[in-house]
Amino acid sequence: MSAGLPVRAEHLDHEYEAEGERVQALVDVAFQVAAGERLTVVGPSGSGKSTLLTVLAGLQRPTGGRVLVGDQDLTALSETELVTLRRQHLAVVVQDPRRNLLPYGTAVDNVRFAQRPAGRGVRRRDPIELLRSLGLDAVAHDRVDRLSGGERQRIAIAAGLALDPDVLLVDEPTSALDARSRDEVLDLLERVAGEGATLISITHDRVVADRLGGVLVLDGGKVVAP
Ligand SMILES: Nc1ncnc2c1ncn2[C@@H]1O[C@H](COP(=O)(O)OP(=O)(O)O)[C@@H](O)[C@H]1O
Ligand SMILES: [Mg+2]
């Protein structure tokens, strides 16, 4: 089981340029999360939440500032080093559920698929055991496209845990769900965080933020409340 890694953002700026317009999506964002703790980024639409997540995940380089995962500065790594760091330590569940899972595969297929890139020295969990530990054994052999939105989201999180990441990043994990499915996904995320991984979640939903805790409020790309 992962022990988690601390994550620190220092003076993060991110600027997009689209059709000659500049958008300052992140402005001097700074915070730290200790190993195994939670950070829940909340803010209105357009406040920079998804940008922050992709920057923390090493999927996008910020235009300024640093991101430290453990003692490694993501912004100073080469592409190859980033790929290795991501594979060994990070997992991302993106906002669009269709981009996280193979729809025609079962839950087990999806966990195995997520384990494919593992090289030597990378922890692999048994897919059935992993799904059972997350209360998903009943749907382990069902095709993902036949399951409910809430079940799919939980399988996407299970697939994210397939390589036992030190940091799990999830973007709007409950935005498309009814209240009951939302609570099941939140129960699952709390369990994940309880097991050791550092959990960074993004949400526009205050209920979700209050439940997960460790709240950081973004507005207009700036941290407006700790
Ligand atoms: N790829 C992009 N190109 C240009 N502007 C973008 C891009 N992605 C996001 N933005 C802009 O950056 C700002 C922050 O967006 P985003 O990080 O998606 O916020 P949130 O996830 O909080 O809704 C918004 O003004 C958005 O329009
Ligand atoms: Mg977003």
UniProtKB/TrEMBL annotation:
<feature type="domain" description="ABC transporter">
    <location>
        <begin position="7"/>
        <end position="226"/>
    </location>
</feature>
<dbReference type="GO" id="GO:0022857">
    <property type="term" value="F:transmembrane transporter activity"/>
</dbReference>
<keyword id="KW-0067">ATP-binding</keyword>
<dbReference type="InterPro" id="IPR015854">
    <property type="entry name" value="ABC_transpr_LolD-like"/>
</dbReference>
<protein>
    <submittedName>
        <fullName>Putative ABC transport system ATP-binding protein</fullName>
    </submittedName>
</protein>
<dbReference type="GO" id="GO:0005886">
    <property type="term" value="C:plasma membrane"/>
</dbReference>
<dbReference type="InterPro" id="IPR003593">
    <property type="entry name" value="AAA+_ATPase"/>
</dbReference>
<dbReference type="InterPro" id="IPR027417">
    <property type="entry name" value="P-loop_NTPase"/>
</dbReference>
<dbReference type="Pfam" id="PF00005">
    <property type="entry name" value="ABC_tran"/>
</dbReference>
<dbReference type="InterPro" id="IPR003439">
    <property type="entry name" value="ABC_transporter-like_ATP-bd"/>
</dbReference>
<dbReference type="GO" id="GO:0016887">
    <property type="term" value="F:ATP hydrolysis activity"/>
</dbReference>
<dbReference type="InterPro" id="IPR017871">
    <property type="entry name" value="ABC_transporter-like_CS"/>
</dbReference>
<keyword id="KW-0547">Nucleotide-binding</keyword>
<dbReference type="GO" id="GO:0005524">
    <property type="term" value="F:ATP binding"/>
</dbReference>
